[in-house]
């Protein structure tokens, strides 16, 4: 039996009333000395911070919000010429705002085609802090990968999915939670945890990223 999917948010992206824009945070490849990706971070069009914007997201409008964020990120990244330097574009998405992956990706594909942003340089990342239906998220990730997008797990080590999800699906990228990175140069416990995690990810062919590197000591330890 085939179910008919009805989702006004996926059809037109309307329904989230607060105007939004995007800020772009560079993700650096310190070894190569280049920008690996630009992460799109939502902001209010009048300067509102992410917290205020996210506070407006509800069960009723999260689908429209997710759609608007994807399209706005691609349009603004293209307008700023962020695709020209060969870097990727990382977009956060809400797994629980995706009814059916192929249906809900339509506006994203249209934005990429309209702006000329290469699909294979778009990374879809989700945070494992949100409790997820594992089968649902696996379906999304596998569908996105099959369509040519890159996939990433954000805040790895801080939430629900963790190793269980990783054993079933190996994304292109795993971003280690910043709490694991903070003061890693002085914490032997964090050094052991992060060291073993990095070895595991490399064995699996997954690119590791470390979030929240803010001191010279943290940077030098991770480079070593």
Automatic annotation (TrEMBL):
**Superkingdom as given in the UniProt entry:** Bacteria
Domain (EAL) ranges: 1-224
InterPro entries according to UniProt:
Cyclic-di-GMP_PDE-like (IPR050706), EAL_dom (IPR001633), EAL_sf (IPR035919)
Q: Which Gene3D superfamilies match?
A: EAL domain (3.20.20.450)
Q: Provide the GO MF annotations for this entry.
A: cyclic-guanylate-specific phosphodiesterase activity
Q: Pfam families attached here?
A: EAL
Q: Which PANTHER family match?
A: BLUE LIGHT- AND TEMPERATURE-REGULATED ANTIREPRESSOR BLUF (PTHR33121:SF15), CYCLIC DI-GMP PHOSPHODIESTERASE PDEF (PTHR33121)
Please report the name of this protein according to its UniProt entry. Diguanylate phosphodiesterase
């Amino acid at each position: 039996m085939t179910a008919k999917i009805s989702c006004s948010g996926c059809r037109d992206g309307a329904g989230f009333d607060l105007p939004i824009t995007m800020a772009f945070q560079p993700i650096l490849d310190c070894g190569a000395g280049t920008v690996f990706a630009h992460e799109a971070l939502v902001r209010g069009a009048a300067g509102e911070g992410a917290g205020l914007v996210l506070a407006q997201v509800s069960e009723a409008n999260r689908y429209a919000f997710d759609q608007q964020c994807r399209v706005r990120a691609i349009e603004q990244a293209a307008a700023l010429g962020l695709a020209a330097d060969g870097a990727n574009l990382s977009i956060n998405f809400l797994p629980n705002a995706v009814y059916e992956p192929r249906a809900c990706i339509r506006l994203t594909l249209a934005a990429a085609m309209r702006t000329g942003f290469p699909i294979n340089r778009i990374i879809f990342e989700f945070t494992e802090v949100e409790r997820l239906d594992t089968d649902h998220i696996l379906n999304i990730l596998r569908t996105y990968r099959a369509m040519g997008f890159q996939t990433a797990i954000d805040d790895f080590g801080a939430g629900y999915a963790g190793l269980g999800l990783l054993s079933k699906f190996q994304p292109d990228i795993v971003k280690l939670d910043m709490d694991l990175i903070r003061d890693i140069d002085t914490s032997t416990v964090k050094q052991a945890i992060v060291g073993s995690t990095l070895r595991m990810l490399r064995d699996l062919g997954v690119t590791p990223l470390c979030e929240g590197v803010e001191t010279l000591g943290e940077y030098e330890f991770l480079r070593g």
